[in-house]
Amino acid sequence: MRNNTRARSLVAVEFDGLVEVHLPPISAGAYATLCGMDGDDEWNGQKPAVLPHNPKVTCAHCIGIWRAARAYGPKYIDTQHLEKDHE
Ligand SMILES: [Zn+2]
Predict the structure, then answer these.
(1) pLDDT by residue (tens digit) across 75-85?
(2) From ligand 1's centre to the CA of 86, what distance in Å?
């Protein structure tokens, strides 16, 4: 299995005055973060923020997703049915 995973830039979002750093979403779409934040929604108290120097993920939800996914090694994953650009 090829490993086409490339790390993309982390995402900083200010939510109710607190800036947190998130993992990026897995595909372009409605969400700005892996955990599903809009990232730019004043009505919900969210707005884009500047990444700090040497950013590290601080969002509890993104960290939870990362921990859950990395608990499953390659023997649990079947990508043969996926299109090439989804690998
Ligand atoms: Zn997040």
Answers:
(1) 999 999 887 65
(2) 22
Q: Is the pTM of this model over 0.70?
A: yes
Q: How far is the CA of 63 from the centre of ligand 1 (A)?
A: 7
Q: Helices marked H in the chain — which ranges?
A: 60-70
What residue ranges in 1-87 does DSSP mark as E strands? 11-15, 18-22, 46-48
SS3 (DSSP) at 30: coil
The pLDDT of 38-62, averaged and rounded, is 93
Whether pLDDT at 4 is above 70: no
Every domain of the chain and the residues it spans: 11-86
How far does residue 61's CA lie from ligand 1's centre (Å)?
5
